[in-house]
Every structure is written in structure tokens, then in C-alpha cells.
Amino acid sequence: MTRDDLFNTNASIVRDLASSIARVSPDAHILVISNPVNSTHLFGVTTLDVVRARRFLAETVGAHPSETPVTVVGGHSGPTIVPLISQSPRGNEVKGEKYHASCTVSSSVVMRSSRPRMGVDFFSSNVELGRDGVEKIHPLGPLSPEEQKLLEACLPELKKNIEKGKNFVQ
């Protein structure tokens, strides 16, 4: 199944569920674990990317995934996934080709905000959730040169993904 197949199947399901929830409970905050993860009141959990990045880092440094937290930012498809390996306590143990590989395999939340972040409407970030939804959006923090390149490559592709999602719901 291609990413387009996934999008076409899941987008209509998410759209219908979101419409029903909005009708019944317009102030609800919901977490969506699906492709796509975007709408005006949706948070999409990108846990899968976080789990992959943690596991890869753990295997690379010979640790347990609980010892290798990794924040993943950006989006949830190919080049839009940006794991911040350098910010992990064990990330400094990964060098060269293994570091580059860890940045391409990879809890963040994709969220729609009233003001774009990183120049896009939906951007996965490390956040703190509370009773009223997102209470704090953590800054990206310092990026390694490799992560900066990944972020720069992520944004144009993420914009395309977002436009595709927006066009679908219009």
C-alpha cells in the first residue's frame, strides 16, 4: 500500500469521525493516531516515529529504549520526520553514518495552531498537554548541523503534505 493509498483510506475515516465529534462536542480535544493527522482542532500523536527513533538509538548504543529518549519533530512521512538525536542523553555516542541513518529511520504531537510554526500550519513538536489541551510547546532547542539540514529538507515536503490534506477536506 502506498502513502497515497493510506491517505485516501484514512483521510475519509478521520474526516467523518472529526465531523461527528465536532458536532457532538465542539470543544473536545482529540488525539489521532492515523495518516493524515491534520485539522483545525486535532492533535495527532506521532508516537510511532518516537518509538522507532528510540529503538534505533538504543540498538546503536547498546542500551534499552527507556534510556534513549528522542524528540521527533516535523511531520510523519519520509523526509518530514526529524528525530533530534543530538538532544538525547545518549545521542553523542552516535557518529558518522550511524548518526545519519538514525536521522532517517525515525512523545511529539502534530498540532494546528492559530499562528504557523516553522512557516507551516502543522508541525510536530514536543508539547505538554493539560486539562485544556496544549499548555506548553517546547522549543526545538539546539540542532546539530545534520538535524538543521534535515529540518530544512523537511519543510518544503511538509508544506506539500499539508496542502494535500487541506485540499482533501475542502
TrEMBL record:
* Reactions accelerated catalytically: (S)-malate + NAD(+) = oxaloacetate + NADH + H(+)
Q: Which residues form a coiled coil?
A: none
> What top-tier enzyme class does this entry carry?
oxidoreductase
Could you tell me which Pfam families the record lists for this protein?
Ldh_1_C, Ldh_1_N
Enzyme Commission identifier(s): 1.1.1.37
Assembly and partners are described as: Homodimer.
Q: What is this protein called?
A: Malate dehydrogenase
